[in-house]
Amino acid sequence: MQGVVRDDVRAAAGAAQTEIVSKTDALNQAIAEKVGQQKYKVWFENSTKLNIADGYLRIGVPNLFIANWIEKHFSSQIKQAVKEVTGEDKKLSFSLDAAIAEQQRRTNMSIQSQPAQNPVSRSATAEKMVGLSTVKLKMSLDDFVVGQSNQLAFSAAMAVASEEKSPFNPLFVHGGYGVGKTHLLQGICNAVRKKRPGTNWLYLSAEDFVNQFVLALKTKKLEAFRRRMRQSDLLAIDDIHFLASKPSTQEEFLHTFNTIDLAGKQVVLASDAHPKLIGQLSDKLVNRFICGMVVKIENPDFQTRCQICRQFASAKGASVPESVIRYISENLRTNVRELEGALLKVIAYSGLQNQKITLESAREILAEHLSRTDPIVHISDIESAVAAYFGISAADLHSAKKDRTISIARHFSMYLARKHTKMSSPEIGRCMGNKNHATVLLACRKVEEQIQQNSDLQWHGPSGNRVVKAKTILSNLETEIAG
């Protein structure tokens, strides 16, 4: 009888242990979904041990750096994951785990003891990150369509690609989505690779730079990271506005930039906004960026749009009538991606239906597409109208300043962008100084309440203090935008 009881106890204990393991696996999976697979691999996969007990989620970590980083950046996502898996709220508790620390130490020693990889065997991504001269990126300067909107930027890119000594440093290219910034950066790298094969160049996004910097800190390989970045003859970084609100990474990038610049080497950057309009970017970086060549790529004009469509159709091996090219170019005016997307839709549909492309068929195919794209009002129009009305600059709207005048202006800018464009909240946030999408949603709600109540809004303009009804402000701004 006692043996049967012991067996039951062991079975119950085994079932409980299985349930704990199952919950832990589910929790790890939920956390990965919340924070993203890449961040999960960096910060959780081999760096944490989770245990749910006594109303707590206990998180074992190898060192205090990882504990502090996870607590600061991922606490809310972890709590949400715990709630989903267990159905209960749990407090978080961090503790140092010697076993994890030892495992990481052994892994690092194993990696360091391995012979250097043969460059030929590297993956394409790894090659791109170290800037091997054998790598060819997708885009080149040869197939970049030049027009009035991008002539200066293209000329600057050609100068950088052809001159061994930096003609200006940095070359900072900015403009809206899909106007060719990435194309120019990759084109410069490919031109340098072709003309000067021995050049040590490196192309990556600012997000890659941030992730590699954080990983270098975590794995104590900061010197290797710095050598890889600072020994570049050409460093091309896309979406540099991603560094906004990341002071530690900004400081690291500033030192990287200074080292390359002092060596007479080249830095090329691309951003959605002018350096002065990138919110939460340090003054030191802004000053370094504007001391070089800052050039804007405007939305392509009609002739450029037509040429882009012709080139795209030729690359696809499709026969597209000039009337269709002109129709698409007249109706889609903002960026290259929209043009190519619309033309691809026409080509694909005609191919599937096995019929020739005609103006009539293009109009029918693109009827819904055109109704959803290319808004009449653009966010730049809204920002200009709002800045002028409140007596501030567009740079103030993108900044982190929170005084009354700028806050009211920023809220109305976000509200009008949400109302009059088809941009999502994250897109509006990125355009307005890399703000979080939740900030945009809160701003829109606040303005809606003020308009419903027709609240008196007070701010300080160039002519002194002003008090105006919310509905009057909205009416004045919408009239200005429409005009």
List keywords for this structure.
single chain, GMP Synthetase, Chain A, domain 3, Rossmann fold, Helicase, Ruva Protein, domain 3, 5-stranded parallel β-sheet, 3-stranded mixed β-sheet, about 60% helix, about 10% strand
Task: Give a concise summary.
The chain has 483 residues and is an alpha/beta fold.
What does this structure look like?
- The chain has 483 residues and is of the alpha/beta class.
- It has 4 domains: 2-105, DnaA, N-terminal domain (GMP Synthetase, Chain A, domain 3); 125-297, Rossmann fold (3-Layer(aba) Sandwich), CATH 3.40.50; 302-371, Helicase, Ruva Protein, domain 3, CATH 1.10.8; 379-482, Orthogonal Bundle (Chromosomal Replication Initiator Protein Dnaa, Chain: A), CATH 1.10.1750.
- It has helices at 2-35, 37-45, 64-86, 98-113, 124-130, 151-162, 181-195, 206-218, 222-230, 247-262, 283-290, 302-315, 322-331, 336-353, 359-371, 379-390, 394-398, 404-420, 425-431, 437-453, 470-482; strands at residues 49-53, 56-61, 91-96, 171-175, 201-205, 234-238, 266-271, 293-297, 456-461, 464-469.
- The strands form 3 sheets. The chain has a 5-stranded parallel sheet, sandwiched between helices. The protein has a 3-stranded mixed sheet with strand order 1-2-3.
- Helix 10 links the parallel strand 6 (234-238) and strand 7 (266-271).
- The N and C termini lie far apart (92 Å).
- The model is unreliable at 11-17 and 111-133 (pLDDT under 50).
